[in-house]
Design a protein that fits this description.
By secondary structure, the protein is of the alpha+beta class. The chain is 29% helix and 20% strand. It contains 30 helices and 41 strands. Strands 4, 5, 6, 13, 14, 15 and 16 form a seven-stranded antiparallel sheet that branches. It is globular. The N and C termini lie far apart (139 Å). About 12% of the residues have low confidence.
């Protein structure tokens, strides 16, 4: 058009056309040069970095040669039959548990017979092995007066403590008087249990501690031990003489064995008369009652004055399950009581009876024992009409009364209420009376069971953290335990009608013993097992992460039971919150509680690395009952690769080559927790072997000897009806070998041994070539049989532990699991990781792993994982070199761009700022991270987390709480004038720890007289030493928590088979209106992405946290700060023994405690008399 204009010269038209054509040629280059981010170059950077690392890693690990080696031997890949597998494993677990139950029943039989033995009295005081008075010697070397000598030898099977397997010893809580005639008589006859303890242990060397807990308060424990054990020490170095055994009679293992399940209503007087010392006594009494309850019981606490209401509002009109969580809320609620008005006993009694009758009629609660506990300073009447209406004539609801204080005006009424309603009346005027008086209700509820004589129910406890595990692992963590118990009845003839429980016998069972019978190698990588009890609570599960610091158990033997539901550890892949569960999971749980056999499928979220990472996986579940117990065993196996296993074994017995040749050198390890072979006799001693590798070599050498037998079947347990027979002592050289596992280990050693013998190509030519180029320091391989081999590729010394020190668990290691999962996403790739939050500390290493799968007849199964470790600084330099050597003005070396290499969970592997290494990218730039989520590059996954215990600050909390108790005591005890003199007389000061126990060289401080059962209440005081300390952060209570974690969605960066960069832009993020573009590119052959961000627009950046936060249900849960689990299905224990028609003939129902004379009152009274006389 321009040239057609006649007014324009032709020459001008030509020049304009030439300029236009030149501009069209240079404009694309000009535009790209001025482009904020060179997207095409970003793609090239990622491609070069990923391909270079893949090719180099493939060569150095020789993964293809390893795969070929497996194909060269006789192998098979078969599909697992989950139902057959679960049946076999459940049978083995049942067999082991039968052994434990048979042992307990034999102890019970022996105890009931021993109690009938007349006491011998030769005129000499009876001497016994008191655990607190052992091996104390005088100057002449002889035992000091009042002590005895016992030979003690450290034994790894018994918490690595010094023990005597030929004797038992007696542990005496401080509130038990050993000079009491009943106590001494029980100590004497229970000594006859020693031969039975020994016989049980010889017949089943896997038995842990055996014990008899006497109703008089002492604990006889086998094997014999000094208390406290001399090698027990903690971070606080607590004095030995203050580590006292707790009074076990309120513990679940004792109470559950002695009584059937219970529905309990506790009525606590909150009227104006219940102030000061009385209020504190009442609160400690209620807490002591709550401490005796457990998962099979149901309870609520009601406060009453002019009205009656629940102390926890969200427990309105219900009896919540007495699990650890609910008991804690009930205890905490007692601190809110504010005495006021006049007590309306009519309202309280009717409320108690109504809720119990409602539960009985509607089939709720335990459907067994029911009881009301009345805690008050005295009622004005007996309220006979109420009892007549609700409880006569058969008294289905037992009534227990606790008269608080020294005023006895209500004693007659309280005594009548208890005695006419099959209960027990006690009077509590001091703290040291509470424990024994509360325990009376257990004796009463046990009467029907004792009177029937012939039925001894066996009880299994929830899990708890006990002593150190018998393991080759070098940690000193406590192991998960459970306890199996049964009651011991008094069969003696008495002058009056009684029905007494003599005590409870039992044995502890290590969860590790169960795990041995469910070998992880049979489940495969990312497979796991778990056990569920009749309440739906897990006995063990890989996500059950309890308190690691078990000082309370080590110091007192008091177990802290863990009540964690299956729905809290199996996290369904949906958007629901904590305890909002999927129908399929609830069906699985229901079937396992009902002890059915079956299978199902479920997509779940799995978190690891201390809840920093998450992945999703679809599992197949198989479950089967463990008959004769309240448990069901479950298996979870990943769908796909998890359903196939590699079968490859090397025959050992007839091998022409000495198979130990495959295990030369010191650059190999085996899984320390797996049982390849082991001696099963307690006398042969695992102390023979210092390491798992030494044990493997020993048995491999032994397998070459003539007459070798595999012994791959564990001993079969006797039938329950035969429990009275003595067990057969095992041969001292008896052993067990897992033939499949150890021959698979030899096969893996043979295959990987050849890789080590043929040196790596690059390292033969130049030992340091690989290190110089990529910073390679280590090459390793881990296999399905638990074998780890490594080759050090540099002589550089490091302050950090060697890889082999913390990575010996093969398929249980996170890097192994991630590599196998990554294989299904991108088969030809490595998974890269760095230590979390490592920053620029030391010389961090990047670990790269790749899963090697083996294929046979169309089926594929993981065989091993190969890996490399690189110096982080070297790889970072390579990355910066790649992203800087281009002709563009804008590169990662310029100030205009920030470049990051992120892993599939959003953690920074490489950044220009070394301080970012190992940190979550959302903490650096949460705005960009949010944009990556919106663009579906990362998926945000909501992960609910049950915080069972937070042990990081617990030790500090213990210190503060002890100080708080100590300083707050005296003021509370002097609130009522009639108690002022009795404050120090009501309890023995030597029984309770002083300030010296907490801080050395401090003056003694009087502690509360409640240390034995650790009430949560603290008497009021003027100055709070805990002021400003957030107790909620100190690990004192369980709670629901949640966190958002992130997963890369690699398909979003793969369009039409091409990995193209995804271009993004932050807009409206600054007042200037500037924009902040970014580019994301998948790094091929890896779990990484390259993120390039423009820095020129100063957009504000928020921070995202991956620290779990507490869930507050208050606004949507009726004022509750938590969400109860009580609506979930449970199955009641099979036996309920709560009635015997002749129980009414027993007339022992309590009497007033011995009154303490108030010196001040006495002196005032005498003074008044003298004055009156003189006048």
């Amino acid at each position: 058009m321009l040239c057609k204009n006649k007014n324009v010269p032709l020459e001008s038209c030509g020049r304009t056309l030439i300029i236009f054509l030149l501009l069209m040629q240079v404009l694309p280059a000009f535009l790209e040069q001025d482009e904020d981010i060179p997207h095409n170059e970003v793609k090239n950077w990622a491609l070069q970095f990923g391909v270079d690392l893949w090719e180099y890693g493939k060569m150095e690990t020789r993964m293809n040669e390893l795969q070929r080696k497996y194909h060269d031997v006789d192998i098979d890949v078969v599909r697992k039959d989950g139902l057959i597998l679960i049946r076999e494993m459940a049978t083995e677990v049942k067999n082991m548990m039968d052994f434990k139950m048979s042992a307990v029943m034999r102890i019970m039989d022996s105890a009931e017979q021993a109690a009938l033995t007349p006491r011998t009295d030769n005129g000499q005081p009876f001497r016994y092995y008191n655990a607190k008075r052992l091996n104390a010697f005088g100057p002449d070397g002889s035992p000091a007066e009042g002590t005895r000598e016992m030979m003690l030898t450290p034994n790894p099977h018994f918490d690595h403590l010094p023990v005597n397997t030929s004797l038992s010893s007696v542990l005496m809580p401080t509130n038990v008087n050993e000079n009491d005639a009943e106590v001494m008589n029980a100590i004497q006859w229970s000594e006859h249990l020693d031969p039975l303890f020994i016989n049980n242990y010889e017949g089943d060397p896997t038995l842990s501690w055996q014990f008899f807990g006497s109703s008089t308060g002492f604990l006889r424990r086998y094997p014999g031990i000094a208390w406290p054990p001399e090698d027990m020490s903690t971070v606080w170095q607590r004095p030995r003489n203050n580590r006292n055994v707790y009074d076990f009679r309120s513990s679940a293992w004792y109470v559950n064995a002695a009584t059937s399940p219970k529905d309990i209503v506790i009525l606590v007087d909150n009227s104006g008369s219940m102030t000061g010392h009385r209020a504190n006594l009442a609160r400690v009494t209620v807490e002591a009652i709550l401490d005796t309850l457990s998962d099979n019981d149901f309870v609520n606490v009601y406060k009453f004055s002019d009205t009656t209401e629940e102390t926890v509002p969200c427990f309105r009109e219900q009896l919540p399950q007495a699990n650890v969580e609910n008991i804690r809320y009930l205890k905490d609620s007692l601190g809110t009581l504010k005495p006021e008005n006049i007590a309306n006993f009519t309202s309280a009694l009717i409320t108690g009876f109504e809720i119990l009758h409602k539960y009985n009629r509607t089939g709720q609660g335990c459907q067994c024992n029911q009881a009301i506990m009345l805690v008050t300073d005295g009622p004005p009447s007996m309220y006979k009409e109420i009892f007549k209406t609700y409880n006569f004539p058969h008294s289905p609801v037992r009534f227990f009364t606790y008269l608080i204080g020294k005023d006895s005006s209500g004693a007659r009424e309280m005594n009548w209420m208890a005695c006419t309603n099959k209960g027990y009346y006690t009077r509590i005027s001091s703290y040291d009376e509470i424990k024994d008086n509360v325990l009376h209700y257990i004796e009463v509820m046990a009467r029907p069971m004792v009177m029937y004589q012939n039925d001894h129910p066996i009880q299994w406890t929830s899990a708890y953290v006990g002593g150190r595990a018998d393991s080759f692992a070098d940690d000193k963590r406590g192991q998960l335990m459970t306890t199996v118990t049964t009651p011991v009845f008094d069969r003696r003839n008495h002058t009056v009608r009684v029905a007494n429980v003599l005590g409870v016998v039992g044995t502890d069972v290590s969860i590790d013993q169960i795990n041995k019978l469910v070998p992880p190698y049979k489940l495969g990588v990312n497979g796991y097992s778990f056990i569920v009890n009749n309440n739906g609570h897990v006995l063990y599960h890989p996500d059950l992460r309890p308190l690691e610091n078990n000082d309370l158990y080590e110091d007192t033997l008091e177990p802290q039971y863990i009540s964690v539901d299956l729905t809290e550890v199996e996290l369904v892949e949906n958007e629901n919150g904590p305890r909002e569960n999927h129908t399929v999971l609830l069906d699985l749980r229901h079937d396992m509680i009902d002890q059915k056999e079956g299978e199902t499928e479920l997509s779940i979220k799995v978190h690891y690395d201390n809840m920093r990472r998450v992945t999703t996986r679809r599992n197949k579940y198989f479950y089967n009952p463990i008959e004769g117990t309240p448990f069901s065993l479950g298996l979870a196996i990943p769908e796909g690769y998890g359903m196939y296993e590699l079968l490859a074994e090397q025959e050992i017995k007839h091998s022409q080559k000495n198979v130990t040749d495959y295990f030369r050198g010191d650059n190999w390890r085996v899984h320390p927790d797996w049982v390849y072979c082991e001696y099963t006799s307690g006398t042969s001693g695992e102390q023979w072997f210092k390491t798992a590798e030494e044990r493997v070599l020993h048995f491999l050498s032994r397998s070459r000897r003539p007459g070798w037998k595999w012994m791959s079947l564990r001993p079969r347990s006797p039938l329950q009806r035969e429990h009275h027979h003595l067990s057969t002592k095992q041969d001292k050289d008896a052993y067990y070998c897992d033939k499949t596992l150890i021959q698979s280990l030899v096969m893996d050693a043979m295959v990987t041994d050849s890789l080590e013998k043929h040196p790596f190509r690059s390292h033969l030519e130049d030992k340091n070539q690989g290190y110089d180029i990529f910073g390679l320091t280590l090459s390793f391989v881990a296999t399905r049989s638990g074998l780890l081999r490594w080759i050090n590729l540099t002589n550089m010394e490091s302050k950090e532990p060697h890889f082999s020190e913390n990575n010996v668990r093969a398929m249980d290691e996170t890097w192994y699991k991630r590599a196998v999962d990554q294989h299904s996403i991108e088969p030809e790739s490595f998974v890269y990781s760095v230590p979390f939050d490592i920053g620029s500390q030391g010389k961090p290493l990047i670990t790269a792993t790749h899963a090697v799968f083996v294929e046979h007849k169309g089926h594929r199964a993981p065989a091993a994982v190969v890996g490399l470790q690189y110096q982080h600084s070297t790889l970072a330099s390579i990355f910066l070199n790649i992203t800087s050597k281009v002709r563009m003005k804008t590169t990662c070396a310029s100030d205009k761009l920030d470049c990051y290499v992120l892993d599939n969970n959003g953690f920074i592997i490489i950044s220009e700022n070394n301080e970012h290494t190992g940190r979550f990218f959302g903490q650096i730039d949460g705005t960009i991270m949010d944009s990556l989520v919106q663009d579906r590059i990362y998926k945000k996954v909501f992960v609910p987390a049950k915080l069972f215990f937070n042990f990081i600050l617990q030790s500090f909390f213990i210190l503060f709480s002890k100080l708080k108790e100590a300083y707050g005591t005296a003021i509370a005890y002097t609130q009522e004038e009639d108690d002022m003199i009795d404050v120090y007389r009501d309890y023995d000061l030597e029984q309770y720890p002083t300030g010296e126990d907490v801080i050395d060289e401090q003056d003694p401080i009087i502690s509360p007289p409640s240390n034995t059962y650790s009430p949560s209440f603290i008497p009021p005081y003027e100055s709070d030493p805990m002021e400003g300390v957030d107790i909620g952060q100190s690990g004192v209570r369980p709670c629901d928590r949640k966190v958002d974690l992130y997963i890369l969605q690699p398909d979003r960066l793969n369009t039409s088979g091409q990995n193209n960069p995804l271009k993004g832009k932050l807009t409206n993020c600054h007042v200037t209106g500037c924009e902040r573009p970014f580019s994301v590119q998948k790094i091929p052959h890896s779990n990484l992405i390259l993120l390039v961000v423009d820095t020129m627009c100063p957009c504000g950046s928020k921070q995202l946290s991956i620290i779990p936060q507490e869930v507050n249900y208050e606004l949507r849960n009726g004022g509750c700060l938590h969400k109860p689990k009580d609506s979930l299905y449970r199955r009641r224990p099979p036996k309920c023994i709560n009635y015997h028609p002749e129980e009414i003939e027993i007339h022992i129902c309590g009497h007033a405690s011995k009154m303490t004379v108030n010196i001040v009152t006495l002196l005032l009274g005498i003074g008044c008399c003298i004055t009156a006389f003189l006048s």
